[in-house]
Amino acid sequence: MSMTDSQGLPSSALVQEWLKTTFDMPAHDPTQNTALDLRPHRRTPSPTKRKRIETDGTSENEHREDDMVGQRYGETPRGSVPTAFVAAAASSSRTTRESDDVFSTISSNSILSGSSATSTTSSRASSPIKRERGMRYADDLPLLRRSLKDPRLPARLGPLLKDVRAVSTKKHIMPLALKEEIEALYSPFEAISDDMFFGGEDDEDESEDGHNQSKVVKVNDDHVKRHRDRLWQLGRICDGTEECSDPSRQTFEVEWNDVVHSPMLRLACRQQSSLRCRNLTSVQVDGRYGDAARTVRRGGGGAATATLCDCRIDFGIFLAPPENSDLQYRIFDLMSRDVDQVRQLNHLNAFEPDWPLAVSVETKRLAPGVEKASGQLASYGRAQLRLMQQFPDPQVEETREKEPAERGIRGGSETILPQLKVVSAQWELSFIVREGPNAVAYGPFDLGNTASLSGCYQVFKSLCILFRWAERECYDWWLRHISVT
């Protein structure tokens, strides 16, 4: 049979045979391509989830809720293949193979980085209830919680709480020299009464010789200017609180810190000559003093079966001793000693080792996860107590055998660490105290709310009183416990 016609073109029989052969072939199925693996793949878990699975043995079914939450935000459910991915895979197997290589490399690097991470893990690694139970049954410094009404409250806290409680009435918290300005700006929006103003002669937050004692000053232009600058700053904090509280806008914790929490802390901290406010969101706890390497007993009995994890907080108020002071000389002498001795005054990892921590601050916004703040502060305070117990009081050591333990606690030898928990606009004060082998948390005490101008003044005055007390308390404690060689 001739394969071509008279014009040299393929014959009709050959064309028909070619068409039959071409169109009778089965349709191409991209899923049959051995070079493509389109079977449902399990997503690579996040570092936090991977750590939780490795530590507590949580099954895959217990994490299905995370996938359901992810679907609400447009994430691909576990075990499903996106349609766009199938189409892209069918169009180019070579591209898919290259992508698989890239994904494999990323997954391997993620796993390696997770396995080589430090012992400090995120506070999200355990629920607040598990963390609280773990600290309660810890082998080292078990945590107890008590109310401020408890008769075992350290006597040294009585005058401080009395002064802070007086501020809660909002009496004499705003300067009389600025009464007309304050009423013109804020009285239409909040109730401002005459008893909220003080005469201007008594300025509690004035500093005298570095010891922050109250003194009487005469009202002058500089005095009024200073109060006007403070009014402007507190007004911005009040406006920032209103902006961040807008329910129609999404506001994250970092914005609360930028416009409300940090400005208030730094404003009050500047009233004390020896205090410094620092951001600690990226600072880890030193592994020698944290909970990560310590075990607990479940239910209070049996062998140690659970492990606690360390956490971080947002801000710290540190004591920076004045130059040429006795405490600075003792700290310099301590830092110059042998390497085998403790040469740091806080429990943080390579962060300002010559500055003792005076006040711990944890901030949150009103959102899921706010319940973790109390546990974070308790864990943080217990780590600081572990460091401070390495500096025994010489006077207490001499009289330990002569006096009962209860008398020693009431006599003022206990270690007291103030702590602040801030949830959006609400400020609360608590204390963690070392009493014998236990760490006892007392609190909370309401310091006020920054949603109003009078509330901002209340929080500011309360913080000034607290920071003044903490500066003096921290200075005296370290002066007693750092010996001179």
TrEMBL record:
Entry-linked InterPro entries: PDDEXK_12 (IPR046797)
Chain residue ranges for the region called Disordered: 23-80, 109-129
Biased composition (Basic residues): 40-52
Compositionally biased region (Basic and acidic residues): 60-69
Stretches assigned to the PD-(D/E)XK nuclease-like domain: 212-474
Bias (Low complexity) ranges: 109-127
Official protein name in the record: PD-(D/E)XK nuclease-like domain-containing protein
